[in-house]
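Posting this for the archive.
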Amino acid sequence: MSVHLSRCMELLTYLHDSELVARFQRRCGLFLVESAAGPRYEVRNWPLHFLFLLSASLGHEIFYITCLPNIHWSVDPFLCRRLLNTWALVMYVGQVMKDLLKLPRPFSPPVVKLETRVDAEYGLPSTHAMAATAISFTLLLSATSRIQFQFEVGLTIAVTLPTLVSLSRLYTGMHSVLDVICGILISAVLLGGTYPYWETMDHFQLNSPISPIVVLVLFYFLCYIYPELDHYSTTRADTTTILGTCAGASAGYWVNQQLGQTFEPEGMLPVPLPTLTASALALGTGRFLVGAVILLATRQIAKTVSLHVLYSWYKVPKSDNNARRRKEIEVPSKFATYASVGLVNSILANRIFLFLGLL
C-alpha cells in the first residue's frame, strides 16, 4: 500500500513539475533567454505561437462574456441559459479550489511566462481547461435536442476546443500538466453529476416564483464568502463577475418566461441550422454591434452608480482607487454591475433588436 502511495505521489510531483512545462514549451519552439536586461523569450515556431495565443484567449472570461450573448441573440436562448449555468458552476468550484489548495503556478525560470495578469493566482486546477471542457460538452449535449447537426462534427469540435485551450495553458506557462488534467477531470465529474438534473433545474429556473430571489441571493452569498487570501488576487473579482452575470441572466430568463416571450426557436424541435446567407450575416453583425453597445453602456452605468453609492456609504474618498479591492466594495459593485448586464442581455436586448428590425 505504501509503495503504491509513494508511486502515486511521485507521479503527481512529476506532473506538477515546472521543467515538464518548460520542455513542452521548447518542443513547441518557445525558449527562455537570459540576458543582462532580465529574462526574455525567443519564438522559433510562429504558427504554433499564434495558435496557442489564440487558444488561450478562448479560455478568458471576456471570450465567454462576448460569445454567450451571441448564442442568445442568434441561435437559441435555451442553449445560452444552459451554458451560463454550467459556466457559473465550474468556475466557482475551480476558483475556490485554487484558493483553498494554494498550489503554485509553474516557476520562471525554467518556464516562459507569457501572461502576467493572473500570475498572482494559484494554479490547480486550470479553470481555463475546466470552462472550455464543460461549455463544449454542455453545448454538445444540449444542442442535440434543439438543433439539427451532425453529431460527429459536434463531438470533434467539443474535443478540439478544450484540447487547444488546455495545451495553450502549458504553452503560456500558466499551468502545470497536473493543473490541466485535474481541470478536465473535475469538469467531467461536475457534468456527469449534474446532467441527470438539467431538466429539473430548467423547470425551477423558469417557472418557480422564488427562482430569481434564490439565484440572486445564493450567488451573491457565494461571492461574499469567497475564501480570503493573505494577498490580493483577481480570483474573487473574476468569480463575482461570472456569478453576477449568470444570476442576472437567470432572473431575466424567468421574466421572459412569465411574459410568454422567450425568443426560442418555434416549431418542431430540433430545428435546422439557419442558412448563412448575406442577409443573415448582416443581421447577425448588426445584432452583435448593437448588443455590444447596449451591454457596454449598461456595464459603465451600473459600475459608476454602484461605486458611487458604495464609496458614499463607506465614506471612502473617490480618489482612493485601492478601495475597490476591499471585499465590502468589490463584491457588491462587481455583482451589481454584471447582474445588470445579465438582466439587460436576457430581457431587453432581443426586444431592442425587434424594434430595430434586426430579428
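Residues 302 and 337 are 5 Å apart (CA to CA). The beta strands are 30-33, 40-43, 147-148, 271-272.
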